[in-house]
Amino acid sequence: MEKKPLLEVRNLKKFFDKTKGLFAREKKYLHAVDDISFTIYEGETFGLVGESGCGKSTTGRTIVKLYEPTDGQIIFDGVDLASIPEKDMLPYRRKIQMIFQDPYASLNARMTVTDIIAEGIVTHKLFKDHDDPEKAIQERIYELLESVGLKKEHASRYPHEFSGGQRQRIGIARALAVNPKLIICDEPISALDVSIQAQVVNMLEDFQDDFGLTYLFIAHDLSMVKYISDRIGVMYLGKLMEVATSDVLYDRPLHPYTKALLSSIPLPDPEHEDKGKRIVLQGDVPSPINPKDRCRFATRCNYSKILVKNDDDDFRDKIVGKFARETVIDHDQHRAVVEENKYITEEIADGIIEFGVKELYINRAKCFSKEPELKEYEKEHFVACHFTEEIDKGTLE
Ligand SMILES: Nc1ncnc2c1ncn2[C@@H]1O[C@H](COP(=O)(O)OP(=O)(O)OP(=O)(O)O)[C@@H](O)[C@H]1O
Ligand code: SF4
Ligand SMILES: [Mg+2]
Q: Ligand 2 within 6 A of 383 CB?
């Protein structure tokens, strides 16, 4: 069956101005979302994962224009939401709903459950043609409460009278109330007890089948999205690093960051034991403010360094003009022979050789000088790395 795109995000950017002071020489922009593109097809669940601060929530919030996009297109049902004025957004504010991580903060504490759920129904005038809209709305609210596993008598209560799981059910009922097409679920289960998480996920899946919903499901760890997602996008510092179907992403991750993320998931399944070699992520996460033109993952990537050995005659030639990946300390003299990320001049190279360094990691130049684009490496498997093919074939020197 032909898949129909419901949401096409094209080169989306969202920068936050972090310039301090009126007379600052240079503008400082935090690149929370930096040129990302992906498509979500009708009826599917697209998972978005990545560590804290990588821009997942900003992506979700920009899609619904809670944040004004800095650049790019958000094509929903054929219409570019990024280019339409706020006054024309109302119908899309109904069609795209959000469910949040913290169901307490996202529910108005002073409103009853009925008022919370009715708000969208009233704003979008969904029952305006009914003879008795008030009664029809109340009936609809009872029906919604029942469908999320709550009871009629809960309708007159306030959010603080419920448990976390129940509050999330109210959040889901509120989203469903306006018959949306797309629901952006921003870590909807992260704050819930493990026993409740499965119930909420199952419920979301049932609603997807019953109402033909499409989900953008945000989570910070891969184990959470695997079960629910058809396809997954992996984000790192405002960029999409890899996009593939869930199965392919788990069985054949190609991006070094995805490999690292997956290797840190404990795998209780004995079948996977040999896969369980953990790749420990080292190195600093660079600042998302005015990022450099290089691979965002370069400072932590296991493949972005080259080991040069001192038993070759051309050791000196191989290190001069490169950047050191590690710091070498002369403890006797209390000084650094070379520092991490330092440009190796002829003089520093001589110092390294004199100190008797046997081998040295240097930075792989391309990783540190050019940003890789997200490219389709295999059908429907997109990867943003300069060396995907070499890493895949194991030929990277
Ligand atoms: N309203 C804002 N103003 C300024 N900076 C912001 C704003 N919202 C987010 N940021 C910054 O943008 C970056 C991305 O944040 P975002 O909340 O999108 O990350 P996230 O992936 O959702 O993280 P988490 O897993 O912690 O929820 C962070 O560096 C954050 O500090
Ligand atoms: S481009 Fe370089 S640093 Fe980036 S993921 Fe690929 S190998 Fe690693
Ligand atoms: Mg978030």
A: no
